[in-house]
């Protein structure tokens, strides 16, 4: 039986797939609940070191919150924001495999991930202003944090459509590739990150997020640094360098 939100794990890499191609991979109440359940599973599994977020097909990555569910009242506006915050604050690194066009809250879904790989020839747009809607404050904060106020204004206030090349230029995408190269590039990056020391990647992800919000908690930074310095992984990293081999990190 297929689900509208699918989850699988391979080689320490989890993949969350929005399987609603006929609905432009939009997210309704059912899908957001399923995403929360998947993130619970991810957080409880120490073997998962990277999470890929993607959509089905090649046309649309995600069209954001389901307008049908919003209009009917089945989906409360804050439910989408809650799910995005949960994804953004996941301890492990996350990678958006942006397989197609991106609309509305789908841009926020991608920005909630740490890395974004897009496809040449696709487009993105947040049409809230064209509908007469004000984008939610939490989402606006994320746009400004990740892209800066000038690009946030272009995307939200001007509702500017951007192709993948322009979206890469302004920092929305970290990488853009041809459609036929997407899977290879995503797998390459995900496996590379999964092979790094988990305590170190988690620590630096947390501190970068703090810095992006304006300041780093020095006491927390000191604690995270101590955990890394006292870890078995640090000794394994040094040993692997001496022995000229790939390290095998345990996350301990």
How does this model look, in words?
- This protein is α/β, with parallel strands linked by helices and 252 residues long.
- It is 48% helix and 16% strand.
- The protein is built from 12 helices and 10 strands.
- The strands form 2 sheets. It has a 6-stranded mixed β-sheet with strand order 1-2-3-5-7-10, sandwiched between helices. Strands 4-6-8-9 form a 4-stranded mixed β-sheet.
- Strand 1 (5-10) and strand 2 (13-18) form a beta hairpin.
- The radius of gyration is 19 Å and the shape is globular.
Summary, kept brief:
48% of the residues lie in helices and 16% in strands.
Write down the secondary-structure element order: EEHEEHHEEHEEHHHEHEHHHH
* Molecular shape: globular
Helix content: 40-55%
Pick out the low-confidence regions: none
Q: For the residues shown, what is the average pLDDT?
A: 94
Number of strands: 10
Largest sheet entry: 6 strands, mixed
* Strand content bin: 15-25%
| Number of contiguous helices | 12
Q: Which secondary-structure class do the elements indicate?
A: alpha/beta
Main β-sheet, spatial strand arrangement: 1-2-3-5-7-10
Q: Nearest-angstrom radius of gyration?
A: 19 Å
Q: CA-to-CA gap between the ends?
A: 37 Å
